[in-house]
Design brief:
Strand order of the largest sheet: 13-14-12-11-10-9-8-15
CATH class of the largest domain: Alpha Beta
Radius of gyration: 22 Å
Number of strands: 15
CATH topology of the largest domain: Aminopeptidase
Shape: elongated
Largest sheet: 8 strands, mixed
CATH architecture of the largest domain: 3-Layer(aba) Sandwich
Number of helices: 12
Length: 355
Amino acid sequence: MISTQEQNINSKQKDKKVIKCVVWDLDNTLWHGVLLEDEQVSLRENIVNLIHTLDSRGILQSIASKNDFTTAIAKLEEFGLKEYFLYPQINWNSKAASLKEIATLLNIGLDALTFVDDQLFELEEVKFTLPEILCINANEIDNILDMPVMNPRFITEDSSIRRLMYISDVERQNAEKEFVGTADEFLATLNMNFTISSAKEEDLQRAEELTLRTNQLNTTGYTYSYDELNHFRQSGNHKLLIASLEDKYGSYGKIGLALIECQAQIWTIKLLLMSCRVMSRGVGTIMMNYIMSLAQNNNVRLLAEFVPNERNRMMYISYKFSGFKEIDNDGSLIIFQNALNRIQPVPPYIKFQVI
């Protein structure tokens, strides 16, 4: 069951907003002037520093602008900024529709978006239609870097190259669209290497970040600080496992985390999460099956806690497909048990190693 300490941790951090992407308007926001009226627009003061700094902090950026796509993209390229914006929505759709599309393409929640615009009408429309999104008037741009939600506690190796990892994802997606064959045949072309290891001290900043940022492929939503994770790492009664993935396009970084409470006869999975960026890569159950093998080898019962919410239904299904059965459910917490008689092998198209 959830301990008092875990309840305190959860209530302390569950409302902490994490901004994953800043979405910019263009005219009179990113630059001075209206591009379709005057092609000699000039960049807003300090905007290049803002964009570079957010990028270095691991915060993604995109565009939602009512503009001509070709003209606007050419201007961004002229300013040397095009590469910083993922899935730019430059069209005549509503800003709310563009923001929804960006969230979908990045596979993040709407509540992880910030929208910056100079037009009160656009800001009010988004606030009304998508109240989860943080809206900022362009007049307040100079304050963005000082906002707590724009200042992650740690700048990890993964966060510092996050945009580049998403660009690699775009390359993979394009290759997948062009590939002729089955999904498994395409995955076999990626030369994936999946690694699991016991978390080391240098992994803990990223581990904390994963508990804060990962919402969909997350079994409980428990969030843990660096110090709490360091305690579990050194505890004889816990296992803290971290997973990484790479393929021929590059590294996905550290993309999985598991926390297991180990008692003499019972092991309990307190947290199991996987980055949403690997959702379609067929690696989601590898860590789960590895934990099942460990429990089987240690001759213990394996339980798992699951806290349902509106986003993590896929992890519930993953537990069920892996042979976990509900033995307790009070509405807010489900306890699963696995008989450990059906452990799936690693897919043949993935090289798997434990280090």
